[in-house]
Amino acid sequence: MTDLSLLSRDELVERIHELERWGDGQAASCQGKAPLLFSHSLYELSRRIAHDIKAPLRQITQLSEILSESPKGVQDQDNLAVIDMIAGRATELDTRLEELRSFGNVHFQPMKYELVSIEEIVETCRLRLQLDDSQVHFIGAPDLLVKADRNLLDLFFHNLLAFLFLSSGMVPSVQIRQVSDEASNQGKILDISVSGYAFEIRGKSGFLDPYTSITANETELNTGLKMTICAMACKRHGWRLCDDFSAQEGFLLSLHA
Question: Is residue 238 within 8 Å of residue 227, measured between CB atoms?
Fold first, then answer.
C-alpha cells in the first residue's frame, strides 16, 4: 500500500484520475445497474475513516481553546502562538477531511432524481456556510428548476461557495442565471459568473483538476478537492461543466444540464 503523504502533487493528482477512470469503467460494466459491492464498501470505508478521525480532531480544537482562554493556563505569548497554530492546523485538517468525505459521496452515493430548485439548494448552502445574503444573486427567473439528485447538487454548490468565500477571506460577487431552457436544442444551461477578483491559474492544471494552484488578486489559493467534487457531481448527472478565464477580472462557469 502506498503512503499517499509521500507522493508529489502531480503523483497524487494522477492517483485521483486513476480512481475516476476506474469508476467510469465500473459504471460502464454495470450498464446502469447499482454500483458494485466493492464500490459501496469503499464509500462506507471513506465515511468511517473521516468520522473516526474527526472525533479526536474536535477534542484537539476544544483543548486548544480551553488552554488559550483559561486564566490559569499558560499566558506566555510564544506558547499562546503555538496553541493558535495547533488550532489552525486542526481546522485545516478538518477541512481536508470534509473534502475527503464529500469526494467519496460524490463518487459512490446512490442517486435519486427529482425536480429540484437551484435557488433553494443555494440558499441552504449559503446559510450553512454563514454567508451574507447579498453575496449570491440570481438573474432573471428566480426559481430555476432542474431534474437532479438533491444531495449531489448540494455538494456542487456547497463546495463551489466554500472555495469562493472561505478559502482566503475573499468576498467575490456571484451571479447565477439560466441562459437557455429545455425548449431549445441546447437544453438547460446555467451560467455562474464570479467577479471582483483577478483570477489566474498557475501551472498546467485545469481549474477543475484536484489541488490546482491559482491566484486571486495576487493571493495564493489552492482548490483542494472542492472543484473536482463539483465536476464529478456534474459528471454523475451526465452534465458538462465548462470554465472560462478569458475575462480580465473574474471567471465564468457554465453548467450544461
Answer: no
